[in-house]
Protein: ATP-dependent RNA helicase
Organism: Kluyveromyces dobzhanskii CBS 2104
Amino acid sequence: MAKKQKHTTQQRKQLRERENQKIKDLETRIEEYNPKLSKAALFQDFPISEHTLKGLREAAFIKLTEIQRESIPLSLKGHDVLGAAKTGSGKTLAFLIPVIEKLYREKWTDMDGLGALIISPTRELAMQIYEVLSKIGKHTTFSAGLVIGGKDATFEKERISRINILIGTPGRILQHMDQAVGFNTSNLQLLVLDEADRCLDMGFKRTIDAIVNNLPASRQTLLFSATQSQSLDDLARLSLTDYKQVGTMEALNSKDSIATPETLQQSYIQVSLPDKLDVLYSFIKSHLKSKLIVFLSSSKQVHFVYETFRKLQPGLSLMHLHGRQKQTARTETLDKFSRAQHVCLFSTDVVARGIDFPSVDWVIQLDCPEDVDTYIHRVGRSARFGKEGKSLILLTPEEEEGFLRRLKNKNIEPSRLNIKQSKKKSIKPQLQSLLFKDPELKYLGQKAFISYVRSIYIQKDKEVFHFDKIPLEEFANSLGLPGAPKIKMKGMKSIEKAKELKNTSRQLLSLAKANDEGDVIKEEKAEVRTRYDKMFERKNQTVLSEHYLNITKTQAQEDEDDDFIMVKRQDHELIETELPELLIPTSKRAQKKALSRKATLAASGNPTKLKFDEDGVGRPVYELEDEEEFHQKGDSEKQKEEFLSKETHLMEQVDVEDKQVAKEKKQEKKRKRLEAMRREMEADMDDSEYEDEPVAYLGTGNLSDDIQSEDEHSNDERQPRKRSKYADSSDEDEEEQQLSNGNGKIIEVEEPQTLEDLESLTANLIGGL
């Protein structure tokens, strides 16, 4: 890179004045801009800085979308914006451009601290926002940072004080607010909530409230989502009083507009719950040249379906993504799926919002979503930015009528498809075989069954989801399970509490608990817990299934009760002896204690190892010497020196013997190696003696043919054949006979017919000898 040119004081002053003049002109253009009069079609039509326009051009962002055309002018003027638009309509740029322009006009530097805070409900969406910001803002001087769960919090704490634009998830942002010393939000200019309805729901309610309480009230706030919440309580929590609505749901719900892209072809099929996996497998087998996303309701279902389909091998590359995976695995899966062309991704709703996957052909919803908003976000992964896409939802007969009615209220009417029975394939026998052979896979199937049933139980829309109509046994058999596992249902209060705690930082929970108890937490005195400590604290690590537990329990009892004394009869009458301590135990607990080796050792202590002398008297191995005998032998120090010298001499002798043994082993090893080399040389010499002899190659089934083919290959090394003078010119009556003499010469003759022919042949043979 070329070195920057050094400017004089006068030149720097001129540059500052020129930059200030540009900012004043830009502010004037923003105030005079009227979106109603000037219909902008390109980004360059907006009153934005040259640095931002250059970044947009290099990132191939040229044309405006509807939400960008309506919201960006309002955001540039400093208004709070509440925006809702279809999925894939470019909402990310609608708030990133105002963020960059706001800080540019305020002449923001590294010394000013945090200027903009962007909150995303999922890690994947936060990473995508950060990547887009890095592309369009690379010509600016602002510093941007990404803070999400699964990353090194200590690394983030050291650098968060120098960040101008911070992007992150609610839990990690609140954690840094409580723990990072240099994290100051008193000078914040702009707050952005992407997927605002998800950020404001029950899962993030307490976290968002805690974050907003630490922010200045004079900030500008932007809220964007495909399904916008307009609850007065939610808006009051964010201090939104005078805000502008852009593309709100009233407009989306009009007769002329729908909430899903127009290029999206939506359809549904009616299928019973036990047949869902069969239909999904058949669908994948018939779409091997497509890019698919399959949405399921829980991470346990995703894990089970991925593991079973991976073993069944439908012929398409399979991936899975859910919130219980490590962050590195989630990031790697996102990258691989984005770059792949023909692939199927099993996922939960963790990627249902805002993620821009290129060229997704099909979005399949194996489980019915909890509401229409979730449906809109799921199908929005396809048909983005005007491209074509397809979606398919599998509805049970109980869910069909109610959910289609909910979709119709949002002007969404998917077409019904019928299943071709000729292409439908049942995988129930294969699943049963897999679960029978693999106990861990059976355990995953049980967890998947329980998680689905619980997800139906906690649904609020009882007109769509009917818990009492679930065919439990048939559904369990469709997963390959021999029967329906037992399920313990939780109360609704505990479920709501678990939902609130799900998105709360664990470190924040521990801090809150310590503060409630009045404890002062000091980081240097905190107990260090390694991953091994956490591993040993886990519960139910060996529990696979009830059947597997019974097997292991029976085996453990057999190992424990294995002894040379066994009670074969336990119902006989017992006679009391005169001594009460010799009474035979009558209770089952006492009998088990008397017959169990483990219980006996616990009562009497560990056994002592004995050694027997010549008289057969057993003595402990480490028997203590009598004190008087010890003193009679002399002073203790002298005995100690004698013992050490004796042991030293003994060790020297043993050391010499060990060295001799090692030397002999080394010599023997060397001898064997030389012997093997000698045998190999002899074998090579033996082979060289027979190099000139003919070799038969098997292959035709006829040994003579094989020998003849070998002779044809070796004609260059052999002498040419001699033809007898008795050979007749007619080839049909010739019968050649090959004879070999001692010199290895071959003479070809025909069978002698007269006495003269026989005498001539004899003379030739004698002459050859």
Notes: The radius of gyration is 43 Å. The first strand starts at residue 80 and ends at 84. Residues 184 and 568 are 78 Å apart (CA to CA).
